[in-house]
TrEMBL record:
Binds 1 [4Fe-4S] cluster. InterPro entries: 6-phosphgluc_deHydtase, Dihydro-acid_dehy_C, DiOHA_6PGluconate_deHydtase_CS, ILV_EDD_C, ILV_EDD_N, IlvD/EDD_N. This is Phosphogluconate dehydratase. Catalyzes the dehydration of 6-phospho-D-gluconate to 2-dehydro-3-deoxy-6-phospho-D-gluconate.
Length: 605
């Protein structure tokens, strides 16, 4: 397969840029591998503590040190619909490990918050930083040096990136990511969005809204729209960290359980005790990272991954930049229409051909590197197959579909929905930002309008309720960056801005905060860096300044005399006590102080 010239070029420059940092990382992985991950390195007292609670057979196996031990890192809690199915996974994994001649133990649990619950609430200010807290918690679980391989049970927004960072910090240990799948289809996403807008306009009450939301989010599994959680699953598969076809099988089905057992056995097969040793630190190279970015663009995935992929790559010694995202977006076609980029949900995507068809199309068109390591032990072409359950419960992987079963949801490259990807980099006299255009109508790709400036999303909502938001405008929401308040998502603004757009106004959002992974039809220049708290240009915008957001040329600017704009003092944030206390925010002060810029992944490591 011939790789696309742009994909080859971007991959080569990432490799060159990362040569020193990647080399240092691989040296650390090699040293750790040489030191050994087997329990023989533990003193007898250490080892006795490590298997004290095991059953007789598992204890004997661990004493003898002749079988691999699998560490389970779980993000289970039963408040998150996506993570509730993980309650039964440890026992399922332990049984599968014994069948394969190994042992499995829960190494540790990590926190898992739901952005759907905290969206628009104070707790959202902990959301981004939960990624790094998850990485730290997972590292504690793996630090016992009891494990030859690991499986990571996590799905949702910051959880998978946090688990990835942890796995890469233990890069000498093979790691397999195990999903639980999406919930079955409920209330159509378009109908849910319609009722949200009616509620924002005061045309329906809370009871009607809650009924609609409950019919949409109605059971175990990920939310069915294509936000960050389902983008995570696409990415883990296209990067070769799931077993083939694992991402979008519904929870609590025979195939789902069979896939979990297969993932367990595969993790045990790739330890240093066998012949297929595949440490994750060697698996995740610059080609795998580029494959992840290509998948993001081809599916119109979550804007959050312009932060997370940068941080994940950094954990492997790979230096990924927003320019890499942008240059790949210019050539990778958009192949999916899943809400909010369309009306379908991920179950429809899976039924139309899903990951097998998507990966085949991208491989044959030269957009993906096929010659990569994967946890499946073959190149990426193995991921063009899909699992089928045979009589008796065994899985066979058969060739996936060569034609889409619904081209309105999943298109071949020859009939792409648009020739470029779903995300675009913006730069200009306001700094740098990201915009998602896959769900934005072409006549909204350029917005030029006066600024209306707010220091919090609730201020904008209050102005809307007071009837103050009329005409065309660019809503500037500042002091929402990682160092200011943890960079919360501002998805709460979507219905309000959608209403104004539907009324015929030309509106856009410009913020140093984040938008939801479900960013929709309103153009939004987000992740603006430098952020306002650091004195970035966004802090000098005033009401009435003309702002131009141009997703066609990739620019965003304030159209004010440069000398006058430069001479303006930057606005300062009110430092009221209630802005940093409550809902645990005070515990994350050190994270805010240490947080990096958005284009560097907004991390604390």
């Amino acid at each position: 397969m011939t790789i696309h010239p742009r994909v080859a070029e971007v991959t080569a420059r990432i490799r060159a840029r990362s040569e020193k940092s990647r080399s240092r990382y691989l040296d650390r992985v090699a040293a750790a591998s040489k030191a050994g991950v087997r329990r023989a390195s533990l003193a007898c007292g250490n080892l006795a503590h490590g298997f004290a609670a095991c059953g007789v057979d598992d204890k004997a196996a661990l004493k003898a040190d002749v079988v691999p031990n699998l560490g389970i890192i779980t993000a289970y809690n039963d408040m998150l619909s996506a993570h509730q199915p993980y309650e039964t996974y440890p026992e399922l994994i332990r049984k599968a490990a014994r069948e394969a001649g190994g042992v499995a133990q829960v190494a540790g649990g990590v926190p898992a918050m739901c952005d759907g619950v905290t969206q628009g609430q104070t707790g959202m200010e902990l959301s981004l930083f939960s990624r790094d807290a998850i990485a730290m918690a997972a590292a504690i679980g793996m630090s016992h040096n009891m494990f030859d391989a690991s499986v990571y049970l996590g799905i949702c927004d910051k959880i998978v990136p946090g688990l990835m960072i942890a796995a890469l910090s233990f890069g000498h240990i093979p790691s397999v990511f195990v999903p639980a799948g999406p919930m079955t289809t409920g209330l159509p996403n378009g109908e849910k969005a319609r009722i949200r807008q009616l509620y924002a306009e005061g045309k329906v009450g809370r009871a009607e809204l809650l009924e609609a939301e409950s019919a949409s989010y109605h059971g175990p599994g990920t939310c069915t729209f294509y936000g960050t959680a389902n983008t995570n699953q696409m990415m883990m598969e296209i990067m070769g960290l799931h077993i083939p076809g694992a991402s979008f099988v519904n929870p609590n089905t025979p195939l789902r359980d069979a896939l979990t057992k297969a993932a367990t056995k595969r993790a045990l097969a790739i330890t240093a005790m066998g012949n297929e040793f595949t440490p994750i630190g060697e698996l995740v190279d610059e080609r795998v990272i580029v494959n992840g970015v290509v998948g993001l663009h081809a599916t119109g995935g979550s804007t959050n991954h312009t932060l997370h992929l940068v941080a994940m790559a950094k954990a492997a010694g790979i230096q990924l930049t927003w320019d890499d995202f942008s240059d790949l977006s210019d050539v990778v076609p958009l192949l999916t229409r899943v809400y909010p980029n369309g009306l379908a949900d991920v179950n429809h995507f899976h039924a139309a051909g899903g990951m097998a068809f998507l990966i085949r199309e991208l491989l044959e068109a030269g957009y993906l590197h096929e010659d990569v390591k994967t946890v499946w032990g073959q190149g990426l072409a193995a991921y063009t197959t899909e699992p089928k359950l045979e009589e008796g419960g065994a899985i066979v992987w058969r060739e996936g579909p060569r034609e889409s079963l619904d081209e309105k949801v999943l298109a071949p490259v020859a009939k792409a929905f648009q020739p470029t990807g779903g995300l675009k980099l913006l730069s200009g006299n306001l700094g740098r930002a990201v915009i998602k255009i896959s769900a934005v109508k072409p006549d909204r790709h350029v917005i030029e309008a006066p600024a209306k400036v707010f220091d919090a999303q609730d201020q904008l909502l209050a102005a809307f309720k007071a009837g103050e938001l009329t005409g065309d405008f660019v809503a500037v929401i500042r002091f929402q960056g990682p160092r200011a308040n943890g960079m919360p998502e501002l998805h709460k603004l979507t219905p309000t801005l959608g209403i104004l757009q539907d009324r015929g106004h030309r509106v856009a959002l410009l913020t140093d905060g984040r938008m939801s992974g479900a960013s929709g039809k309103v153009p939004a220049a987000i992740h603006v860096t430098p952020e306002a708290l650091d004195g970035g240009p966004i802090a000098r915008i005033r009401d009435g300044d003309m702002i131009r957001v141009d997703a066609v040329t990739g620019r965003f600017d304030v159209l004010v005399d440069p000398a006058e704009f430069a001479a303006r003092p930057a606005a300062t944030r009110r430092d009221e006590e209630d802005e940093v206390y409550g809902m645990g925010r005070e515990l994350f002060e050190m994270f805010r102080q240490r947080a990096g810029a958005a284009d560097l992944g907004a991390g604390v490591f």
